[in-house]
Amino acid sequence: MSAYDPDFLDDFLLPLPSFAPHLDESIVRDDDLTEHYVADYVHYSLVMNGAPERRSAVYVALNVDQNKHKQTSRSNRWRIDGRIGSKFQLDNTYYRNNDWDRGHMARRTTAAWGDNAIDAQRASNETFYYTNACLQHANLNQDEWLGLEDWVYGLDLDKDGKISSFSGPFYADYDRSVHPSGHALALVPAGFFKIVCFVNQANELEVRAFVMFQDEKALADKSGRKKYNNQTYQTTVTYIEELTGLQFEPEVYHANPMTHCDSSTHTRGPNSVNGEPILTPELIEVAKPSDIQNTSGPRQTVKDDVVDIFISAAMVNPEGSDKGTEWIGLINLGADAIDLTGWSLSDNQDNAVAVGQVTLKPGESTVVKQLGKIRLANTGDVIKLHDDQKNRIDWVNYTEKTVKPGAPVLFLSPRDTLELDV
Asked: Of 101, 74, 75, 106, nearest to 90 (Cα)?
């Protein structure tokens, strides 16, 4: 069995992460496991949290050679791993007749590679163990989330198509739970993390780290920062360590372009990017590969927690023809007047339109009606607001379920949008 290989990325050793003391005591250990606690599969390895209320992977470490991907069929035959023991795994009872899916941590199509089709199919089948599944909400965009390896690969930054990734759940103090009749309660993860590692064309290690929340209320930020469920955020490895209790090698978080600053020691990273103040640890929404922040090239400055201009609403599906009748509303929820001259709105395809020459006093709002090339898709889209220096001021997304004919999609509470003059 090939398992996860720490030497997969040539000159860079990426060992499995270790554990903080509070996590270490919950790790499942058995003499049948590698090093007494690592379960090996084809191309990936994982460690289980045996706490009765969790019974999920602590992390799943996966090697991917995208040059050897093969077309495979989906087994869908989920199995208990006898090496771990059934009492430490959530079987199908926990996924039946509810909103929770068996979310792959090692994605089937990503793991489906090998020297030939038989090897690739075996690797695909090996992902259907309950140890590799977590309670994941049905609304979570699995293709987008689990395809982050493909996103990074699509940026064409690596030298050889090889990727090593670490994925897993994280929990909070007040998680939701699933409690099937006659079975023990299991907590639902507050979200998931993924760390993607590769070697760039200059033979340097690069890392991208991501989180996705499926219960942002359980992880309320003391600073009041906005988080959205089912939305992917690029962040720091240190932030993931804080969420999970995992401890990665220093090379992993030093190779990540995102900024982290410990509020108590201020030992990790600056509090500014491109001379602009930022809140740390950085959490930047990503909806497509080009949104991902990289070590080379200009960094996008995100000031959505600094400047209090917000996208408040959008008419996505107006009655009659969409042309000329779609609009986007903005509101100033800060204490100072802000000049929006030179500002722009854009969609996820980067079609842009100028906001116009307008100054919003505190509490005032405006509606941008001439959207030019922007077409607000009824199936869901992203809307971005940038200032005259190209800093991103706000970012919202909506889904098909939130779009109603003739009614605006609201991004703030209704009381913040009542004064819109459309």
From this structure: 101
